[in-house]
Amino acid sequence: MSISDLFKPLPLLHGPAMRNRLMLAPLTNQQSDTDGSASEFDHDWIEQLAQGGYALIHTCATTVEAGGIAFARQLGIHSDSHLAGLARIASTIREGGGLSSVQLHHAGHRANRLLGGIPSPASGATLPGVRALRTEEVERIRDSFIAAAKRAGRAGFDGVALHGAFGWILSEFMSPALNDRTDRYGGSVENRARLTLEVMEGIRRACGPDFQIGWRLSVERYGLRLEELRDIAAHILDRELIDYLDLALWDSAQIVREGALQGRTMLSVFTSIPRKGVRIGAAGRVMSAERAAQLLEEGCDFVLIGRAAILQRDFPHRVRADPRYDSPQLPVTAQFLRAGGLSERFIDHMRGWPQFVQPHSL
């Protein structure tokens, strides 16, 4: 496929079509107010992106419960008090011509106590001295995801994306290493997937036929089993419970290194699944126009842009203008990011990423 294919519209099962194949990945940036409200820094960041040409823009991971917080200055959607700031974000994205989505997040056992988080493990064996969630508590968290999706709709977003990656609560429940429950949310692979499916089903019922639902899935670490995740994804795609699947890969070209699927690309494990009307995309070191176009050739319907968007907020415009476009080489200086419009809060967050910001750069 050519670079021009990245700029073809992409219809979704529900709601408006994506205007092209470039989606902004949900990016943690730790620049909201301490109560979870969207700050001026959040709005400045979104305003830059909204003019950048993306088809769909996600918020950062956004808390569905106050106790599910993972990061300092994390955006929230667990209270109606967050609606005004979120509505402003949704309006800004819409004015720029893109679709908008809130990434719904609960940290599960990884909730940060220092920030008021309440660790909520699937298993009593995960954290010393912390009991497993009771069934009714799992149901409460499920309902909090659904309530947060309803708030997103009220704020004017086109949809939500479920954070089912990196050991956060939906991912945690999928893992046989982190979920040894004996109720209906544990044991078989069907039971371990139940929380995710009930959230998807509940959001569709609550938010109607025009609301878009995405699902971010990672396939590594935290005891996750690739073959199980493939089968769960196949079930979800067959039922068309979501509009798009976002594969959060550390490297979009990575190879499966063990098990029955050894030797295949991680991406091909999922792009080979019959997807009906569901769209599939991937993130992971997509830094150039060439690599983005290659992912379409490898079976993706769209491509998620993360680090390249932090470096240059208008990545889609740059790719359209120059088919040979490649992102600046990492690491960059803090001043480079500052000159490009990133806040000091965002820059401080990126200093924690290996080889992104040059050490000791001012």
From TrEMBL:
Under the heading Pfam families, the entry gives: Oxidored_FMN
Q: Which Gene3D superfamilies match?
A: Aldolase class I (3.20.20.70)
Span of domain NADH:flavin oxidoreductase/NADH oxidase N-terminal: 5-320
Superkingdom field: Bacteria
Q: List the keywords (alphabetical).
A: Flavoprotein, Oxidoreductase
Keyword Protein biosynthesis annotated: no
Task: Spell out the protein name for this chain.
Answer: NADH:flavin oxidoreductase
State the organism of origin: Roseateles agri
